[in-house]
Design a protein that fits this description.
This protein is of the alpha+beta class. 45% of the residues lie in helices and 11% in strands. Strand 3 and strand 4 form a beta hairpin. Helix 3 packs across helix 4. It is elongated, with a radius of gyration of 17 Å.
């Protein structure tokens, strides 16, 4: 592992478990935070730490919307496509973001700033349509509100690897 401190910290956490696999999701998120996404190499590192096969960890990783097996932008936008958000204009919010950023669903802007992804539910049903950006919820989306949020984020320019 390229990060000895992270490796040692993860080993200590895993050692406290009755079954190493109990920490599989935590390990994958820690590796993703460190590397920016869960690369094949990171997946192998995680599997070794957990005494699992890479395939076992891959099967688990593909289940979670918030684990990224491909590089993502500095800001990952998850637009909720659950029934409640769908009934309140999720498609227009998704289309507006896609058009504004010039990327399709699943795409990343050329500057690496934004990735646009769907999410089956973000638990913000009282404020549809809604989205998460790097885990922060935004609700009652309108084109104007989306534009304001995106402009503010463009001005912030966070570090390349951000806690997600």
């Amino acid at each position: 592992m390229n990060a000895p401190y992270l490796s040692e910290k993860l080993r200590q956490e895993i050692a406290s478990a009755d079954h190493p696999a109990e920490y599989a999701v935590d390990v994958m998120f820690a590796l993703q935070r460190h590397y920016g996404y869960l690369s094949d190499e990171a997946l192998i590192e995680g599997a070794q730490l957990l005494c699992m096969t890479p395939l076992e960890l891959e099967e688990l990783a593909t289940f979670y919307d918030f684990l990224y097996r491909e590089p993502v932008g500095r800001y990952v936008i998850h637009v909720c496509n659950n029934l409640v958000c769908w009934m309140h204009g999720h498609e227009s919010a998704m289309d507006h973001i896609s058009t504004r950023l010039g990327i399709p669903l699943g795409g990343t802007t050329e500057d690496g700033m934004f990735t646009l992804l769907p999410a089956s539910c973000i638990g913000f049903c009282d404020a549809p349509p809604a989205m998460l950006i790097n885990g922060k919820p935004y609700g009652h989306l309108t084109a104007e509100k989306i534009d304001t949020i995106l402009e503010r984020l463009r001005e912030e320019k966070p570090p390349l690897v951000e806690v997600r």
